[in-house]
Amino acid sequence: MALVAIRAANGQEVESFTASAEEWQRMQLDPPGTYLMPGSRWPAVLKRSIRGLQFFAHSPGFPGAKSQPESEDHRAAKLAVVKALRSAGYSAKVEQSGQSSDGEEWQADVLCTTVGKTIAFEVQLSQQTLQEYRRRTQRYAAAGIVAIWMVRAPGHFAALSKAIFYEAHQSNRALGDRPVFANRDLPLFPLEIGQEGALCAGSMRIAVPSIDGVRRIPIEEFAIGSVAGNLSFAEEWTWHDNF
């Protein structure tokens, strides 16, 4: 499944989420092979989920290995970030691929490029090891990109915190009571999704330390502020409203 496809005739990217429902219906009538899946270049089919999200998928018969399907919450979170960044005037794209300096490939959920920096926003709703977070973050760094992780809370984020505590204990380092936020090279923030799901406006929030204590910021505001400079690091990552 993908939010972006390639138009076979000219190689241009086509986004599912910027097409109106009427335009999407017209596109579904285009001949097979009009749109291709990124990477595989296999013909794409245009679909709409039962919750109304438009996306591309491999047409039947694809012989290669397909990536694990994303949840609708994952796609909704990506869309919330990219739309917010664009509304603020930033250049942002979803599902952008690239290579690090050593040739290793990566794909960012949302990639935002502005003067002097490029940020990859990664939505992590499934379990992932601390080592994998570090590996992927370092891969981005090798390409000159800063990664910001938004990790499902409380479950996965709590497990990640325990892994960091254990690692610190093994190396006899004291972390106090805020282990994750205190890591400069691995910006990790808990993503809280309300029971109604990410498709409901205002249901996604990021918990982040501020001078007034931990605040829960709408994911859209968090994305814009991360690019604008509202996040800074001293002893921990901290949010400043007027940085």
Set down the secondary structure blueprint.
Blueprint: E1 4-7, E2 13-15, H1 21-27, E3 35-36, E4 44-48, E5 54-58, H2 72-87, E6 91-99, E7 105-114, E8 117-124, H3 130-142, E9 146-153, H4 155-170, E10 188-193, E11 204-210, E12 213-218, H5 219-228, E13 231-233, E14 237-239
Parallel strand pairs: 8-9, 9-10
Antiparallel strand pairs: 1-2, 1-3, 4-5, 6-7, 7-8, 10-11, 11-12, 13-14
Helix pairs in contact: 2-5
Low-confidence stretches: none
Helix content: 25-40%
Strand order of the largest sheet: 6-7-8-9-10-11-12
Principal-axes geometry comes out as: globular
Number of strands: 14
Would you write up a description of this structure?
The chain has 243 residues and is an alpha+beta fold. It is built from five helices and 14 strands. The protein has helices at 21-27, 72-87, 130-142, 155-170, 219-228; strands at residues 4-7, 13-15, 35-36, 44-48, 54-58, 91-99, 105-114, 117-124, 146-153, 188-193, 204-210, 213-218, 231-233, 237-239. Strands 6-7-8-9-10-11-12 form a seven-stranded mixed beta sheet, with helices on both faces. A hairpin with a 5-residue loop joins strand 1 (4-7) and strand 2. The mean pLDDT is 89.
Looking at this protein, list some descriptive labels:
single chain, 243 residues, alpha+beta, 7-stranded mixed sheet, 3-stranded antiparallel sheet, 5 helices, globular
Produce a short descriptive summary.
By secondary structure, the chain is of the alpha+beta class. 26% of the residues lie in helices and 33% in strands.
